[in-house]
Amino acid sequence: MEKLSVALNLNKVPESWTKVAYLSKKNLLTWLDDVVQRCDQLARWSEEFVTPTVLWLSGLFNPMSFLTAIMQITARASGLPLDDMCLKSDVRNELDAEEIPEPAEGGAYVNGFSLEGAGWELGRNGEQGYLTEMVLKELSPVLPVVHVTSIRKSERTVVGMYACPVYFTTDRGQANFVTSFDIAMESEDSDDKYWILSGVALFLSPE
């Protein structure tokens, strides 16, 4: 009880709670707000058992299970082995999920990603945006809604793309790793080593 009281007074999530919770480095107040949003999404989802038009991926306890399900559904529909499938991520130009009225015809629209080490330039005239230099004082820019689908590994495009790791928190490391998204660079001539050395990554639960 003393440890619990001290943690609450210091605006920290008590250790006894974190043992059974999801990975997070948020303070107590923002953590509680995060929990409420997670519960709200699950409550809305379970009312009619219809996947949200844009799923807040950060609000899932195990987001990789949802992404794997996208690959499984595509593999079964196409009669392909699951081991032959990979994820394809197309970053749209809508920052607000409310701007997308209809669910994706294939795969799913997801959001809740924050960038670190780079900025994001929105696309124009229907074109996809791309990685850019960080904007001053904008340390964790929000990535727009991402359309995640599944394709065969042989169809994966690597030219002009950066294989961006996705983590739960800024601690990174294998325990925090979720998956990897191929996101666009400015041109096909761009060198992904620049972004690798910059430590560019996506996070589901930044501080």
Name its key features.
207 residues, alpha+beta, Hypothetical upf0131 protein ytfp, 2 domains, 4-stranded mixed sheet, 5 helices, 10 strands, 27% helix
Task: Please give the structural blueprint.
Elements: H1 2-9, H2 15-18, H3 28-48, E1 54-56, H4 63-78, E2 85-91, E3 108-111, E4 114-116, E5 119-121, E6 130-132, E7 146-152, E8 161-167, E9 177-184, H5 192-197, E10 201-203
Parallel strand pairs: 1-3, 8-10
Antiparallel strand pairs: 2-7, 3-7, 4-10, 5-6, 8-9
Q: What report would you give on this structure?
A:
By secondary structure, the protein is an alpha+beta fold. It folds into two domains: 1-50; 52-203, Hypothetical upf0131 protein ytfp, CATH 3.10.490. It is 27% helix and 23% strand. The chain contains five helices and ten strands. The protein has helices spanning 2-9, 15-18, 28-48, 63-78, 192-197, and strands spanning 54-56, 85-91, 108-111, 114-116, 119-121, 130-132, 146-152, 161-167, 177-184, 201-203. The strands form three sheets. It has a four-stranded mixed beta sheet. A hairpin with an 8-residue loop joins strand 5 and strand 6. The chain is globular and about 55 Å long. The chain starts with a helix and ends with a strand. 25% of the residues are buried. The model has no long low-confidence stretch (mean pLDDT 93).
